[in-house]
Amino acid sequence: MPEQLNQRAALLLKKLVYSYIADGQPVGSKKLADDVDLNISSATIRNVMSSLEKKGLITSPHTSAGRIPTEQGYRLFVDTMLEVEPLSRSLLSRMKQELDPYQNTDALISQASQIVSELTHMAGIITVPKVSQATLRHIEFLPLSEQRILAIMVVNEREVQNRVLHMKRAYSIEELQEAAAFLNLNYMGMDIYQVREALLEAMQRARENIDATMQTVIEVAGMTFSKTMQKNDGRFLVQGETNLVRYGQAADRDQLTQLLEVFDHKREMLELLDRCIQAEGVKVFIGDEAGFEGLGDCSVVTAPYSVQGQPVGVLGVIGPARINYNVVIPVVDMTAKLLGEALE
């Protein structure tokens, strides 16, 4: 981080960043001199711009005499100069309506990602809550054809999840009813991970003396919970990638291509989002700060969302570094909070 800027240099940097965010065009000293709020001579502006460039806060693209912010310049701007705009009451009301708590978890997750994408004109990204936050309320099994079973599971009060299981043998409806009754009697109200661990322990204790009902329970419930965990753990959703195309008109096309390819780096994206889940409030990553190749001149803005005080996932947006941080940050922050409230 560079040394503290004087008031004049800080004001010029702030104006330059806002101008570049607005139109994506390099900012020249004449454009800044025409700003009636500055009341600074062109010569003074040129000197200050030269100083800011030496400090690594702005740079001059090859194609223009104007300057644009560097990654370091954006960071100083976000940390010390940003004026966050509060969301209007009408927008808050609309967001609450769209995050209707009577939707199931998948619908709420998708809706939250869509909201931040639409309001920020960026790509929305969100991690799916891990099923360690899923409490078993009721389970049923129905036999299907070709050795398949339909598992119907109610978790977290009212969320219904259906799984089609491909088994190694066929099961009678009586076997499945007994297995479901056993699970509902002994494990209702427990975390799904805890149920699975308890069943594995029971199988190890009983070994060869296990009865037929318990054998069926272990087989069908084990398959159900394993499939549920595979479906939910380590997933993230991306919505609104097409929003990023509009940046390609003013920015380098190669940068746009690079940005769209970021979504193929699933492991790196998950690692970045996992780092944010325990964060206090909004985190802003600019360029290389994200910790993996591919972001380049891009930014990621994230906020964790919580259920009963425990963070369960991360919501955010990703796009070019020249985004309206003063709008994006409160949108991401408030959507994450409203999503947590809806999930509760």
Q: Estimate the strand proportion.
A: 15-25%
Task: Fill in the CATH topology of the largest domain.
Answer: Beta-Lactamase
> Percentage of helical residues?
40-55%
| The CATH fourth-level homologous superfamily of the largest domain | GAF domain
Shape: elongated
Number of H/I helices: 12
- Low-confidence segments, given as residue ranges, are none
Task: Return the string of H and E elements.
Answer: HHHEEHHHEEEEHHHEHHEEEH
3D structure, described in words:
By secondary structure, the chain is of the alpha+beta class. It folds into three domains: 7-80, Winged helix-like DNA-binding domain superfamily/Winged helix DNA-binding domain (Arc Repressor Mutant, subunit A, Orthogonal Bundle); 89-129 and 235-343, Beta-Lactamase (2-Layer Sandwich); 132-232, Heat-inducible transcription repressor hrca homolog, domain 3 (Enolase-like, domain 1), CATH 3.30.390. Helices cover 47% and strands 18% of the residues. It has helices at residues 7-23, 29-33, 42-54, 71-80, 89-98, 105-120, 173-187, 192-206, 212-232, 253-261, 266-276, 325-343, and strands at 58-59, 68-69, 123-127, 136-143, 148-155, 159-166, 236-239, 283-286, 298-307, 310-320. It has a five-stranded antiparallel beta sheet with strand order 7-3-10-9-8, with helices on both faces. A three-stranded antiparallel beta sheet has the order 4-5-6. Strands 1-2 form a two-stranded antiparallel sheet. A hairpin with an 8-residue loop joins β1 (58-59) and β2 (68-69). α1 (7-23) packs across α3 (42-54) and α8 packs antiparallel against α9 (212-232). The longest helix is centred in the middle third of the chain and has 21 residues, at 212-232. The chain is elongated and about 90 Å long. It starts with 6 loop residues before the first helix and ends with a helix. The model has no long low-confidence stretch (mean pLDDT 82).
